[in-house]
Specification:
The complex is a heterotrimer of chains A (786), B (160) and C (263). The longest helix of chain A is centred in the last third of the chain and has 28 residues. In chain A, 61% of the residues are buried. In chain A, the strands form eight sheets. Chain A has a seven-stranded mixed beta sheet, with helices on both faces. A five-stranded mixed beta sheet of chain A has the order 7-17-16-15-8, with helices on both faces. A four-stranded mixed beta sheet of chain A has the order 20-28-29-30, sandwiched between helices. In chain A, helix 14 runs parallel beside helix 15, helix 15 crosses helix 16 and helix 17 crosses helix 18. Chain A contains 19 helices and 30 strands. By secondary structure, chain A is α+β, with helices and mostly antiparallel strands. Chain B has 160 residues and is of the alpha+beta class. In chain B, strands 2-1-5-3-4 form a five-stranded mixed beta sheet, sandwiched between helices. Chain B is elongated, with a radius of gyration of 16 Å. The relative contact order of chain B is 0.16. Chain C has two domains: 159 residues, 2-Layer Sandwich (Uridine Diphospho-n-acetylenolpyruvylglucosamine Reductase, domain 3); 95 residues, CO dehydrogenase flavoprotein, C-terminal domain (Enolase-like, domain 1), CATH 3.30.390.50. In chain C, strand 4 and strand 5 form a beta hairpin. The longest helix of chain C has 19 residues. Chain C is globular, with a radius of gyration of 18 Å. The chains are: A alpha+beta (786), B alpha+beta (160), C alpha+beta (263). Chains A and B meet through helix 1, helix 17 and strand 30 of A and helix 2, helix 3, helix 4 and helix 5 of B.
């Protein structure tokens, strides 16, 4: 029976009421008295040397408060990178400076050159047009393989080349890998591209900086997934401000998908300029600006080789990837093609020998960083495409080939540095086969063929690593931050609870799901528990929300803090009930003495905590506890997806006819929210597979610079999805047994779609091995007719 | 120039420039910030409001063009007692929103759809939402919520 | 947007007068113009709204059987009000943009803009319609002069467009997946005296008539009539969304579908 409250219940989201009535409070809804507006003058060329900037005319324009250029930031730090990757020779990555406003050179279309602060946005734009720029255009570095050649034009003149790092994971002995491949009965090889994407949360980024001279305090309102991280990076590395004088608020945030993790120049600018101008400064990105200033995602070019023995067991895997980092290192960009990608190359399979090679490249494009899945979709895509191709080459059933090679014993140490604690890949595949009615596929194909359409079935498996941790290990791997999280459970005198959490909710429903946990632990109504997030002045600390970590990491901190609260409350209850603390039980909001009918209600205990007249002397008054939680390991959600497509042979148009996901997320707090997360991930994955393509031309001009050319998935591009999460192997090392569900859909769906299209084409007699994403009608038609 | 209109049943007026957009007038002059701006090419639909009963993209209409019009925004959609209306309630019941940013436009478009087509099919809903982008939900629960709001049984649609 | 004045006349005469000002520009529904202004790609001194001119509104069936549509009539109104009299044109109007865009965008604005991927130019040219302005009448064949270029003079307003109604017609639109404009759109109209085939989205020269297909269909109105006919890819548009060859191929596929729909 579904529960109607607490852990496991599909509680309706309380935050919905404000969003549905127009009462949300997004950053652009915030206007501070006296604010001025900034417009950034951005480079319209990909690569150039700044010879001069003359702002004198602009400064005299109506309404202009101040015009800033790179010179104004010469004594200020640049945007930091949060992860130092060590290359395969033991050297640190090349780490060029990333100024707030361009200094010396512009390095991508959209690179900010100057900033005009004025009374109105239109005045700022008018003045920006009056800035006289002399920029010598340089050849653009766009193609990654060309960028890696000796003698290539340098994106950063002070670096030795355009390679940020040449990284390797897994088997270091090339000869050993060669030998595995030499002895293989079959080798399947595939060259593929993981297309560059733009995250496109529907809310564009916004920053409002405010400075109070009287108290020397700054406030930054920003569209961020992790306000504490922004405060730390901005204070410690960029502006050199004391953290206690800076408050960062991320109020309602309209989606993030990774691209709002990072500390952006505009945030530091508005904070800095608020003091420099003596006025609050607001920046609201237009969508066009977002396309050239939000960090992009993906953009890998890979070659993958899979070796199989005569019995079709996977015996070796080798990948060579060029990963695009863009012009500068965004906050977590360096970790994405490495520790979030290479470590996932084992997938669900017990391949004994794996070697992952990644060259990360600087190019004259927008910085690339984490986007929903971050590295894991790129790994899954390579692996699951090559497995599918192997099955076709060998003439074996793609599900059987996967099952044969599944990891079945846990814990399992992969050859690429991870230990999977638990999972049941065959069980999850069983769920998929039933939920997707794979038995009925042949009949559905016949129906499609009767309409003149080709029908295909694509299968995909994935594993992901969520809740990246523990801090001591990631520190050794180069992370410059800890990856724990924190929560404070503040019980009020009347028994209601405010929980200050480091996670940030921007669509994930924390305000509903987190209280379900606390209320369940205490046995009180969910409505008595309120989540507070998104404001560094209100919450203890937090690393924010990304990497499907919120519940697994911050939720665990919240559980630990609640346990501390309960422990203390039991001491108070024991005193009130004149019983031994060991005999006190808490159930349904009542503390009772085991084996008796003596009890005291939660609210009486909490009141006593704050009105401690009859109170144990050795206990402090009050009832508030904080916990920091650093996980022992990643969590490993896994799943199996099935996609059915129809292809119109006349036009190459692909339509998704059926999509089914079977996921193992361990324990589930709110099934409705989990389903919603999977739906959204699948929608984005279908977008990547069929529609979305962030493309540059050879000169570094962004071709897909608006929704006129960047195809976002719309309601009629996708079907209803079937979602099954009844396969549940709880995480073994966090208190809730949860694994995380936010990215699964985006990781698991693209290969399923591609595999399905290729199945459709091959069923129609077209021997097509691969089509790069997005599989636009044009590309599919070309593949069919080449 | 001076303009006046009725917004959510109340007479309002303001002094605007020729270039002031209806979305800007609502958000900045009237502080009705429920109407959102998510793009600059009239595609995302976060800014959809009703002008004389018809759905329009308020970031793609000059405020001056709405002079004298009857404008409805998300702030005026709830029932008179403040409770969620049928569409809003269905969005909550069926988890038709996540981050909430596209939601005002979705609700306004859904209302316009149900006015002209009280029992739309799944395909009709998906087609009608061509001009409303959502990045969170994969549209599943939005379509389901609109079907439910139109009184259709959605219990057979996968996943709750 | 740059600053501009706004004027909303109620008669064509007043509109023409208002458009006499230097750099004044007509504003239809603004669904293309406003995004252009936001990018600061245009700097009109004044926008003259067509929305208050009653004589430019609405659809009316003429005595000669043609359908006349006021220049300021929205796509939504055309979709509704020509459904009975000219269903293929109604279907075309109902496929432009999205519902909210259709509630603002106007036929006159779209035709005057002549976007190479817009739907209306195909409907107008395919129907052999007559563009009526404040000054004259222009046959569709003489109106469209290439991408974003028309026979309109400065300050000239499309007051209405008169469509002869064919025996059968169909608009087949293949969507550009991002903008949802036509990657290729084919409007085919079969009149007693011949077939007209107009193609939008495909050519670097904007909307055009596929005369070879028309000739073949005049001889024999069957899908097979196009067998062996292929449009030359050389002048087709190539972009992110499709190669020249792909667009040329789609012209054939969409034309064939239009024929089938008219059978």
């Amino acid at each position: 029976m579904p529960k109607d409250s607490g852990i496991g219940a599909s509680s309706k989201r309380r935050e919905d009421v404000r969003f549905l009535t127009g009462a949300g409070n997004y950053t652009d809804d915030i206007n501070v008295h006296g604010q001025a507006y900034v417009h950034f003058l951005r480079s319209d060329i990909a690569h150039g040397r700044i010879k001069s900037i003359d702002t004198s005319t602009a400064e005299a324009m109506p309404g202009v408060v101040k015009v800033f250029t790179g010179k104004d930031f010469e004594g200020v730090g640049g945007m930091p990178c949060g992860w130092e990757v060590t290359d395969k020779h033991g050297a640190p990555m090349q780490e060029p400076p990333h100024p707030i406003l361009a200094q010396g050179k512009v390095r991508h279309v959209g690179d900010p050159i100057a900033a005009v602060v004025a009374d109105s946005l239109e005045q700022a734009r008018d003045a920006a047009e009056a800035i006289d720029l002399d920029i010598e255009e340089l050849p653009a570095v766009i193609d990654m393989k060309a960028a890696a050649q000796d003698g290539a034009t340098l994106v950063h003149d002070d670096l030795k080349n355009n390679i940020c790092y040449d990284w390797q994971l897994g088997e270091t002995d090339d000869a050993k890998v060669d030998e595995v491949f030499a002895n293989a009965a079959h080798v399947t090889t595939l060259d593929l591209v993981n297309n560059r994407l733009v995250a496109n949360p529907m809310e564009p980024r916004v920053a409002v900086g405010e400075y109070k001279r009287g108290t020397d305090e700054y406030t930054l309102y920003t569209t961020s997934q992790n306000p504490h991280v922004i405060r730390l990076l901005m204070c410690a590395f960029v502006l050199g401000l004391p953290e206690h004088k800076v408050r960062v608020v991320a109020p309602d945030v309209g989606g993030g998908f990774g691209t709002k993790i990072f500390h952006y120049a505009e945030e530091a600018f508005c904070t800095f300029a608020a003091k420099a101008c003596g006025r609050p400064v607001k920046w609201t990105s237009s969508r066009s600006e977002a396309f050239m200033s939000d960090a992009h995602g993906r953009d890998h070019v890979s070659k993958i080789e899979l070796a199989l023995d005569a019995d079709n067991n996977f015996i070796g895997l080798r990948t060579n990837t060029f990963a695009n980092l863009g012009a500068y290192l965004s906050t977590f960009s360096s970790s994405v093609p490495t520790w979030l990608h290479g470590t996932l190359m084992a997938g669900n399979y017990k391949t004994p020998v794996i070697q992952v090679n990644v060259k990360a490249m600087f190019t004259n494009t927008v910085p690339v960083d984490a986007y929903r899945g971050a590295g894991r979709p790129e790994a899954t895509f390579q692996l699951e495409r090559v497995v599918d191709k192997a099955a076709r080459e060998l003439g074996v059933d793609p599900i059987a080939l996967r099952r044969q090679n599944f990891v079945t014993q846990f814990p399992y140490d992969t050859p690429v540095a991870l230990t999977y604690d638990t999972g049941d890949y065959n069980g999850t595949m069983d769920k998929l086969e039933a939920a997707a009615d794979l038995a009925g596929f042949a009949a559905r194909r016949t129906q499609s063929e009767a309409k003149g359409k080709l029908r295909g079935l694509g299968i995909n498996c994935y594993i992901e690593a969520c809740g990246i941790a523990p801090s001591n290990i990631v520190g050794m791997l180069g992370a410059r931050a800890g990856l724990y999280d924190a929560a404070t459970v503040r019980v009020n005198a009347t028994g209601s609870i405010s929980v200050m959490v480091g996670a940030h909710s921007h669509g994930q429903g924390h305000e509903t799901a987190f209280p379900q946990v606390v209320a369940d632990m205490i046995g009180i109504d969910e409505s008595l528990v309120e989540i507070v997030h998104g404001d560094t002045s209100k919450i203890p600390f937090g690393m924010g929300t990304y990497g499907s970590r919120s519940l697994a990491v911050c939720g665990s901190a919240m559980v630990k803090a609640t346990e501390k609260v309960i422990e203390k409350a039991k001491k108070i209850a024991a005193h009130l009930l004149e019983a031994s603390e060991a005999d006190i039980e808490l159930k349904d909001g009542q503390f009772s003495v085991a084996g008796t009918d003596k009890s005291v209600a939660w609210g009486d205990v909490t009141l006593t905590a704050y009105v401690p007249h009859n109170f144990p002397l050795e206990v402090e008054p009050g009832l508030e506890e904080t916990a920091f939680y650093d996980p022992a390991n990643f969590t490993f959600p896994a799943g199996a997806y099935a996609c059915e497509v129809e292809v119109d042979p006349d036009t190459g148009q692909v339509s998704i006819e059926k999509f089914t996901a079977a996921d193992d997320f361990g324990n589930i707090i709110n099934p409705m929210i989990v389903d919603g997360q999977v739906h959204g991930g699948i929608g984005q994955g279908i977008g990547q597979a069929l529609l979305e393509n962030c493309a540059y031309d050879a000169n570094g001009q962004l071709l897909s610079a608006s929704y006129m050319d960047y195809a976002m998935p719309r309601a009629d591009d996708v079907p209803f999805y079937g979602v099954d999460h009844s396969s549940q192997t709880p995480c073994t090392h966090n208190p809730l047994g949860v694994k995380g569900c936010g990215e699964a859909g985006a990781i698991g769906s693209p290969p399923a779609v591609v595999n399905a299209v290729l199945d459709a084409l091959n069923s129609g007699g077209k021997a097509v091995d691969h089509i790069d994403m997005p599989m636009s009608p044009s590309r599919v038609w070309s593949a069919m007719n080449s | 120039m001076k303009i006046s209109m009725t917004v959510n049943g109340k007479a309002v007026s303001g002094d605007v420039e020729g270039r002031t957009l209806l979305s800007g007038f609502l958000r900045e002059h009237l502080s009705l910030t429920g109407t959102h701006v998510g793009c600059d090419t009239a595609q995302c639909g976060a800014c959809v409001v009703h002008v004389n009963g018809e759905a329009v993209k308020s970031c793609n209409m000059l405020a001056a063009e709405a002079d004298g019009a009857d404008v409805g925004t998300i702030e005026g959609q709830a029932n008179a007692d403040g409770s969620l209306n049928v569409i809003q309630q269905a969005f909550q019941d069926h988890h038709g929103l996540q981050c909430g940013f596209c939601t005002p436009g979705m609700v306004m478009s859904a209302a316009a759809l149900l006015k002209e087509n009280p029992r739309p099919t799944e395909a009709e809903i998906r087609k009608y939402l061509e001009g409303n982008l959502c990045r969170c939900t994969g549209y599943h629960n939005i379509v389901k919520a609109i079907m439910a709001a139109s009184g259709q049984d959605v219990s057979s649609i996968a996943a709750e | 947007m740059y600053s501009f004045d706004f004027e909303k006349p109620s008669t064509i005469a007043d509109a023409v007068a208002a458009l006499g000002a230097e750099d004044a520009q007509a504003l239809g529904g603004g669904q293309t113009l406003i995004p252009t202004l936001k990018q600061r790609l245009a700097a009109p001194s004044k926008l003259v709204s067509m929305s208050g001119i009653a004589e430019m509104q609405g659809v009316c069936a003429e005595d000669d059987g043609s359908v006349s549509i006021g220049g300021a009539t929205t796509h939504a109104t055309v979709a509704l009000d020509t459904a009975a009299t000219y269903p293929a044109l109604a279907a075309l109007a109902g496929q432009i943009g999205d519902p909210a865009v259709r509630n603002r965008g106007t036929i006159g604005g779209s035709v005057a803009n002549n976007d190479p991927a817009a739907c209306y130019p195909a409907g107008v040219l395919g129907s052999g319609a007559t563009i009526v302005t404040n000054a004259r009448q222009i046959a569709a064949d003489a109106f469209f002069e290439g991408m974003f270029t028309t026979a309109l003079d400065e300050g000239e307003i499309i007051t209405s467009i008169r469509f002869p109604v064919p025996q059968a017609a169909s608009y087949q639109k293949f969507l550009q997946p991002a903008s949802r404009f036509a990657l290729v759109g084919v409007y085919l109209a079969r009149f007693a005296d011949g077939v007209r085939v107009a193609v939008t989205g495909a050519s670097e020269d904007g909307v055009f008539r596929w005369s070879e297909a028309e000739e073949a269909l005049d001889k024999e109105f069957r899908p097979d009539a196009l067998m062996g006919l292929r449009i030359n890819p050389a002048n087709m548009i190539a972009d992110l969304h499709g190669s020249k060859e792909y667009r040329a191929h789609l012209v054939s596929v969409m034309t064939k579908r239009a024929i089938e729909a008219c059978m």
